[in-house]
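**Protein fold record**
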Amino acid sequence: MNVIVVGVGFLGSGLAERLSRQGFEVTVVDRDRAALDALSPSFTGKKVCGVGFDRSVLEEAGIMRTSALVSCMGSDEANIVVAHVARSMFRVPRVIARLHDLSKAETYRRLDIQTISPNDWGISRICELLTYQQLDGVYDIGSGDVRLVRADIPALLDGSTVRELTAIGEVQIIGISRNNETFIPTQGTVLANGDIIYAAVTSSASRKFKQMLGIGE
C-alpha cells in the first residue's frame, strides 16, 4: 500500500517510520526541511518539502497513485483542507485527518473523512485503519440490522470474484475502490490485492464476512 503522511511532527514522524518498517511505501510531506531531515535513518520512504495542501506538492508526493493519505499537521483547518483535496479532487480511497478540536468532528464526518485525536494511541489506531485486518463500519442502515462496511482485499484473495464474497441475504458487495476510482461490481468482477470493498452485511453475518476475508477475531 502507498501512503502519504502530511506533517511530520511527533504523530506524523512516528506513523511514517512505523509504516515504513512494516513494508509500506511511504511518502512524507512537510514544509520544514529540518523536520524531514530529523526522521530516523531507518526511514526508507520518500521526502517532499512543501505545503501539504498545495496541489503540485501532493502530485510530487504521488497522490495520483496513493492508496491512503494521513494529514496530521498542527492545524485542524490545514488538515481538513488537505483531507478534502485528497478526497474530492484526487479521489484517494482512504483519508484520515488529525483532529484537535472535537467540536469540528461533524464537519469531517460530512466529508466522509476519518479522524484521529492526538493521543498516544493515535499511531497504532491509524495503522489499524490502514490495514485490511481492520473491518471498518461506515454506516448503520435502519435499526442497525444491516451495516455498510469497508475492508481491504488481502493478497490471499487476489484473483477471486465478487461471487465468492457474496452470501445471499447476508453479504452483498456494493462497491469497489481501485486506482482512485469507485465502481459498482458484478458477481463476476475479479478482485485484486489492494482493492477496497464496500459491503452491505447483516449483523448476524458479520463473523461470516470476516471469515470470508480471512480476518481473525
Q: What stands out?
A: The radius of gyration is 18 Å. Residues 76-89 form the longest helix (14 residues). The chain has a mean pLDDT of 85.
